[in-house]
Amino acid sequence: MNDQRADVAIIMGSQSDWATMRQAAETLEALGVPHKRLIISAHRTPDRLYEFAKGAKAAGYKVIIAGAGGAAHLPGMTAAMTPLPVFGVPVESKALSGQDSLLSIVQMPAGIPVGTLAIGKAGAANAALLAAAVLALNDDKLAQRLDAWRASQTAKVADEPTDTP
Ligand SMILES: Nc1c(C(=O)O)ncn1[C@@H]1O[C@H](COP(=O)(O)O)[C@@H](O)[C@H]1O
Asked: What are the protein's UniProt keywords (predicted)?
């Protein structure tokens, strides 16, 4: 779903990142958070990145989730051009299992923060939960949905381990 009015932009460096980044989209969908997904690359589409990042706040976005793999400059470059909070998701790369993505995103210079998540799908899902938590500060109904979501996670955890999964 690409919502018309979106609070969250999920951007990613390539179509190949979608398998990971869809966890963020599905999590936001489950929480009823309007979002938009876009393929934008600092390397391959620098003009598109500039236009997006410079206009993101005026476009009404409140939070940006940026996923990229390998030499993952997308989250940091986005953060450099917007005052909005940026959460970076290191996509698992083939050659270096996402270690390259993680290190490219996490070690930002002081002054330009990127909230860096875990490598891969868990990181993408958690980025969405963080984005929802930020939005929930000013949205009581969303805060209630987030609480319910957490309670449902808790309810799924069994009391005891069993031999049959
Ligand atoms: N890290 C970046 C950026 C960027 O940081 O701007 N743009 C594309 N990429 C990454 O290149 C990887 C391989 O891309 P392809 O699968 O298209 O070759 C993807 O994980 C993408 O995020």
From this structure: Isomerase, Lyase, Purine biosynthesis
Q: Containing domain of residue 22, as a range?
A: 6-154
Q: Would 37 be classed as within a structural domain? A: yes
User: Is 161 within a domain?
Assistant: no
CATH classification at residue 78? 3.40.50.1970
**Under 8 Å between Cβ of 65 and 128:** yes
Number of domains observed in the structure of the chain: 1
Residue 36: which H helix or E strand, with range? strand 35-39
Question: 31 CA distance to ligand 1 centroid (A)?
Answer: 28
> What is the reported pTM?
0.96
What is each CA distance from 123 to 6, 52, 58, 91, 165, in whole angstroms?
21, 23, 27, 9, 25
Pick from 11, 12, 16 the residue to mutate for probing ligand 1's pocket: most ligand atoms within 8 Å of its CB.
16
Say how far apart CA 84 and CA 86 lie, in whole Å.
6
Q: Is residue 164 part of a domain?
A: no
The predicted-structure confidence for 51-73, as pLDDT tens digits, reads as follows 999 999 999 999 999 999 999 99
Measured from CB, residues less than 6 Å from any atom of ligand 1 are: 13-14, 16-17, 41-44, 68-74, 91
Q: How many A from CA of 62 to the centre of ligand 1?
A: 24
